[in-house]
Amino acid sequence: MGFDYNSLLAFIIFGVTIGVVYGIVALGISLIYSGLDIVHFAHGEMYMFGAFFGLVLAHNVGVPYPIALIGAMVLTALLGMAVERVFYRRLTRAGGGYTVAGMGMIICGFGMSVALVNVAYFIWGAEAEPFRANLDYIPRLSFPGDIEVPESYVLTAIISVALMAALHYFLRHTKTGLAVRAVAHNKDIAYLMGINVPLMISLIFGLACGLAAAAGVLIGPMQSVQVEMGYLMLMKAFAAAVVGGFGSLPGAILGGIMVGVFENLGAAYISPSHKDIYAFLLLILVLMFKPSGLLGVEAKVKA
Amino acid sequence: MGILSSVADFIDSLAKRHRLLPWLLAYALLLPLPFVLATLFNEYLIDLANRICLFILLAVGLNIVKGFCGQVTVGHIGLYAIGAVTSAVLALEPGGFGGALGFGWPIWAAIPTAVLVTAFAGLIVGLPSVRLEGAYLALATLGLGESVRIFIAVTPALGSSTGLMMIPSPSIGSFVFDSFTSYYYLVMTAAIIGIYFSFSILRSATGRAFQAIREDTIAASVNGINVVKYKLLAFVLSAVYAGLAGALFAHMPPGYLHHNNFTVIEMVTLLLMVVLGGIGNVWGGVIGAIVVAIAYDQTKDLVFYFMDRPIVIQPLVFGLSMVLLVMFMPRGIGGWIEDFQRNRRFIRRSEERLGGTARNS
Q1: pLDDT tens for each residue of chain B, 361 residues long
Q2: Considering only CA atoms, which of B173, B170, B199 is closest in space to residue B186?
Q3: B219 and B92 inside one domain
Q4: In chain A, which residue's Cα lies nearest the Cα of B330?
Q5: Which residue of A has its CA nearest to B271?
Q6: Cβ count within 10 A of residue A62
């Protein structure tokens, strides 16, 4: 049996679609990193909460899927802002990044992650719940060589691109977006320019958590929704963010796609049971040989 | 304060005679612990004491790289797993259950080999630290640690879902360490020696180099400290602790090893120990390990019923307490210890100056 190019193409297509979702979560992580100089270890839980909010809205409230998506994004953004305001602000004000406070922030994020998982467990229980969404109005895509892409994957691709375009427009072409970028660049100067820095930080957090929620709702129909889904997603999103260059927004998407494709090809051609390790392998390789990532800027060491 | 000061004075006077005397005294005081526990409470607490000793080793080891050298690593539990699985696989008889690997080595060869393998793994974990700082390093180590666990979980030769069973117990001559009480002497000795060496490292030139790197990497390198070498050394030393703890854990009765022992929850518990103890303080780490391990054990079966559903609240409590600790008590127990020591030093100096009246005034 010769090499099957059709299945290779299929693996790449599915890898790209799932990778775009990784990329959206990675976007949020990158956004928080560039804005606050911290790595948010509880971001996977925001994704999980987003998925559950979407599930509750779609099943229990009964709104259509796109509205559930938007509702979940708003709810999770509010949750993220509340968490930031109550818990993180105290720590980030002391200084993030490479300082001792940065170490505290990492530990705090870990604790928050564990706490949030168990809050969700408290509310929704441990069972995996299927996310049934009526997506009949989305066309199935057919590729040459009998490859059919299911509706949920098509929808994921469309919404992801739309979200990225919206984020790009917001950051580059609005006044608030300019303020956000100013805060990411230098908080002290942003203060001097009359920008409400704490508000912008809240906004960054809300945006990042909203993106994670969108990823959760998008991935819901492909896999089931369960309390522990956040952790692996976090790892893969980290890998994506690092591969693309931490803090770089296009890099996050590129990294996500790379992780998705890499992991699908590894699962297909090396060993399917080790699927979850490939993302880490990529992460470690990139960190060891090009820590700034593919599109990142070289991190400066401050004396 | 009064009792604490007199205890500290007594320890100081012992240490003046010979620096090992306080350690020997501590060892002698800990010797009858299993019998006290068995008569006052039950056998189970001895098992808990054993696990506390292992956690002390882990926490003290993590403190070397995190507290002394200031490198943020969150993959320590992966090293622990490497030590445990290596030692178990080396010591198991070939052809075990479920396709588990086995080499049938004698245990006293398996444990040092496991420690060496873990030290090498620590070197690999440490390699990113040469180029990465803070957040990046945390990510890299997290990735490494977690991939170790997943690798164990999906590889049948290393136990996968069933775990490794019938791991032999170590023995000296005809004396076999196969009960909780006898194993206690093994792990307690290891823990005491581990703490002692941790202090030795802290007070040596190596320890000072670690602290210089922690305070300011650039200033340290300007002062002629080989930053790369010492960062890697810190990782290797802490990996030796983790490997020893892991190997001892593998051979602990009942000789069963499962990858569930190396999850994120364990990592969080370990981090909580170090944070509660105060990052960088050895005794703080030890006390943190004891407190957290007891709390972990006692709350393990605490179930809360919410809408007729049993909810294990322990992880929630642990996660939240970690957040609150970092927020409101960033120096941990170690902060109290340092304050206490500073006070004592201040009082002693004042006494010398005033002729022995400062304490009463």
Answers
A1: 577 777 777 777 777 777 777 777 777 777 777 777 777 777 778 888 888 888 899 888 888 888 888 787 888 888 988 988 888 888 877 766 656 677 777 778 888 888 999 999 888 888 877 777 666 777 778 878 888 888 888 777 776 777 777 777 777 777 777 777 788 888 888 898 999 888 888 888 888 898 888 888 888 888 888 888 888 899 999 999 999 998 888 888 777 777 777 877 788 788 888 878 877 788 888 888 888 888 887 777 777 676 666 667 777 777 788 788 777 777 778 778 888 888 888 888 887 887 755 555 4
A2: B170
A3: yes
A4: A104
A5: A107
A6: 8
Using CB atoms, pick whichever of A111, A113, A235 lies closest to residue B146.
A235
Output phi, psi for B94, to 5 deg.
-60, 150
Interface touch B319/A114, C-beta < 8 Å: yes
- A108/B306 Cβ within 8 A: no
Determine contact, residues B57/B241, Cβ cutoff 8 Å. yes
Residue of B23, B26, B51 lying closest to B184 (CA atoms): B51
CB-CB under 8 Å, A276 with B316: no
Q: Would the CB atoms of B150 and A87 count as touching at under 8 Å?
A: no
Q: Are residues B223 and B275 in the same domain?
A: no
ipTM of the complex: 0.74
Q: Do A273 and B154 touch (CB under 8 A)?
A: yes
Within this chain, do residues B223 and B242 fall inside the same structural domain, yes or no? yes
Q: pLDDT value at position B356?
A: 58
Candidates A243, A287, A292: best to mutate against B (most CBs of B within 10 A) is A287
Distance of residue A37 Cα from the nearest chain B Cα, in angstroms? 9
| Chain B closest-CA separation from residue A279 CA (Å) | 9
Closest to B337 measured CA to CA, from B269, B286, B272: B286
pTM of the model: 0.81
How close, in Å, is residue B87 to chain A by CA atoms? 23
Flag if A273 and B127 touch (Cβ within 8 Å).
Answer: no
Tokens of B64: 């070397």
Same domain, B14 and B82: no
Nearest chain B residue to A109 by CA: give it: B323
From B219, which residue of chain A is nearest by alpha-carbon distance? A303
Residue A238 and residue B134: Cβ atoms within 8 Å? no
Judge if B295 and B150 occupy the same domain.
Answer: no
Q: Which residue of A has its CA nearest to B316?
A: A115
Range of the domain at B296: 263-361
Spell out, as residue ranges, where chain A has pLDDT lower than 50: 1, 96-99, 300-303
Structural domains counted in chain B: 3
Q: Three-state SS for A148?
A: strand
The answer to whether the bond into B156 is cis (omega within 30° of 0) is no
Name residue B344's amino acid: R
Q: Quick one: which H or E segment has residue B233?
A: helix B227-251
User: Domain ends where: B224, B243, B261?
Assistant: B261
Residues B132 and B49 in one domain: yes
Looking at the structure, tell me whether residues B18 and B58 fall in a common domain: no
Candidate from B128, B217, B313 with C-beta closest to A287: B128
Q: Which of B71, B73, B130, B147 to mutate to test the interface with A (most CBs of A within 10 A)?
A: B147
Chain B residues near residue A107 by CB distance under 8 angstroms: 271, 275, 322, 326
The pLDDT assigned to A94 comes to: 60
Q: Which residue of B has its CA nearest to A42?
A: B319
CB within 8 Å of B147: residues ≥ 6 apart: A277, A280, A281, A284, B78
Give the torsion through C-alpha atoms of A49, A53, A59, A62, to 10 deg. -170
The total number of residues written for chain B in this structure: 361
Tokens linked to A201: 């930080």
